[in-house]
Amino acid sequence: MFGRNYARTAALAVAAGSVLFAVPATADAAVTASTPQTACGASYVTKDSFNLPGGTSTVYLTYSSATGKNCVATIKNAKVGTPTPTGAYLTFGDGSGRQEEFRDFSYYATAYLYAPGQCIYYGGRDYNSGDWWGKGPGWCGK
Asked: How many angstroms separate the CA atoms of 49 and 133, rounded?
C-alpha cells in the first residue's frame, strides 16, 4: 500500500511540475510573436521593410502621425529569445541626426527619429548580417 500511494503521489507531483513549467513557455510564445507595432507602438504604421541577408531578421520602417516620429524595428526571425547582436538605425536624408540602437537583444531592436515631412535613411543589422544594411533616402513622412 505504501508503494502504491508513493508512486501515485510522485506521479501527481511530476504532472503538477510539468504544468508549472508549461505556463512560462506559453507566456514566452506571445512575446516571440513580435510585430512592428509590438516593437514601436500601436500608433505606428508600417511603411516599408526588407530582410537582412540570410533572412535571420526583418527590418521594418514605421511612422506615427500622432507623434511625428519614424521608428525602425529590426525583428529577429532566428535565435528568437536568445540575446544576440541586433540593431536598428535612422538618419535624416542628408545623413545627419543618426539614432541607433545596437546591442544583444532577444526579440528586436528599435530606433526612433522625429522627422515629420522629411526623407530618411533606415536600416538594421544582426549577428548574421556582418554589417549595417539599409535603404533610403526612404519614405518621406507627410
From this structure: 12
Q: pTM for this structure? A: 0.76
Cα 117 to Cα 43: distance, rounded to the nearest angstrom:
17
CA–CA gap between residue 90 and residue 101 (Å, rounded): 10
Helix (H), strand (E) at residue 65: none
Residues 6+ apart with CB under 8 A from 64: 40, 41, 43, 44, 45, 71
Compute CA 89 distance to the chain's CA centroid, rounded to the nearest angstrom.
13
pLDDT in tens, the chain (142 residues): 444 443 444 443 434 443 333 333 333 334 445 899 999 999 999 999 999 999 999 999 999 999 999 999 999 999 999 999 999 999 998 889 999 999 999 999 999 999 888 899 999 999 998 899 999 887 776 5
